[in-house]
Amino acid sequence: MIVSFNWISEFFEDQNAIKDWLSKPQELAEVLTSAGLEVESIEDLAKNFEHVVVGHIIEKGQHPDADRLTLCQVDVGQGEL
Fold it and tell me: What is the pTM of this model?
């Protein structure tokens, strides 16, 4: 059975306590195993999103040579559009 970290966090009354476990998932796996729950593997899904960038569209305009295309100025927080 695959269980997400978010689902496990629902069992913690103190949400700050679960944040401490985010940085040490292997230790959490050991605690769960000692409680009788077998942890077969740990997957870090965040590594799949290392190159994802979130941007804010500053300006949207019509493409000069095409009716169905638009040109956008996007700010991704790196000092230039």
Answer: 0.53
